[in-house]
Design brief:
CATH class of the largest domain: Alpha Beta
Number of domains: 2
CATH topology of the largest domain: 2-enoyl-CoA Hydratase, Chain A, domain 1
CATH architecture of the largest domain: Alpha-Beta Complex
Radius of gyration: 20 Å
Number of helices: 11
Largest sheet: 6 strands, mixed
Number of strands: 10
Strand order of the largest sheet: 1-2-3-5-7-10
Strand content: 15-25%
Length: about 250
């Protein structure tokens, strides 16, 4: 259901149900949770990439499976899914949604929970839930409101319209557009700029990013914690090696 591969410190999770446009069923959510927890502690994985197999990224939840559940069962199911997407949103390592194809409904919620969203020109996105008479049920609206202005996010949610990746890029929902050909290769090359960096510093920057929106801390407290994080790695082995290289280079000049 989900294929996995580690390529040069980048963990790639591929949604692999192309015959149903990678609709997410219960088994896939279990696997997604498992690999996120496994790679959280894996020192060899510095960046997580989510993508899809075939022509779609993700069409959302598997409505055929969901339709067989009672409302009480759906409530429990959605709570579990909400927790998985929240864990993805709060993941200690950078997360990237590589939109190899169309993302609609819950597929957009999944992508919105990631740190970055990359796409190619043929991709379309749509929070289409309202056309089914429902709303986002996995936290996607809240992630969208964090990414876009209130008006733009609300427009996408209320209209249920699909937009092109180019339009999404202009809005700020997509961070980068790559050519359709060899799309994943371009994505991995983009991610290597992060994956080549020291893991400790990556983790600390993610902490700072997550705390930036936390209303429980004043700006002064946030900056104090930022300084403390820097001091954690100051004088460490990577820093010492870099400083030696820097000083030797300056001596030669």
């Amino acid at each position: 259901m989900i294929k996995t591969e580690i390529i040069g410190n980048i963990g790639v999770l591929t949604l692999a149900r192309p015959w149903v446009h990678n609709a997410l069923n219960f088994q896939m959510f279990k696997e997604l949770k498992y690999y996120l927890e496994k790679w959280r502690e894996d020192q060899d994985v510095k960046v997580i990439v989510l993508t899809g197999e075939g022509e779609s990224f993700c069409s959302g939840g598997d409505l055929e499976e969901f339709s067989q559940l009672s409302k009480e069962e759906i409530a429990d199911c959605f709570k579990q899914i909400k927790d998985i997407l929240l864990a993805l949103h709060q993941y200690p390592k950078p997360t990237v949604a590589a939109l190899n194809g169309t993302a609609v409904g819950g597929g957009c919620e999944l992508a919105s929970a990631c740190d970055f969203r990359l796409a190619h020109p043929a991709v379309q996105l749509g929070f289409v839930q309202i056309r089914l008479g429902i709303t986002t049920g996995w936290g996607g609206a809240n992630y969208l409101f964090k990414l876009l202005s209130r008006q733009k996010a609300l427009e996408l949610l209320l209209s249920g319209e699909r937009i092109s990746s180019i339009e999404a890029y202009k809005l700020g929902l997509i961070d980068k557009i790559f050519p359709t050909e060899d799309f994943l290769r371009h994505v991995l090359a983009w991610c290597r700029r992060f994956a080549c960096q020291p893991l400790d510093a990556i983790l600390l920057y993610k902490q700072t990013a997550q705390q930036a929106d936390d209303p429980r801390f004043t700006l002064s407290q946030k900056i104090t914690l930022e300084v403390e994080r820097c001091l954690k790695v100051w004088g460490g082995p990577v820093y010492q090696q870099s400083m030696r290289h820097f000083l030797q280079k300056n001596k030669k000049k």
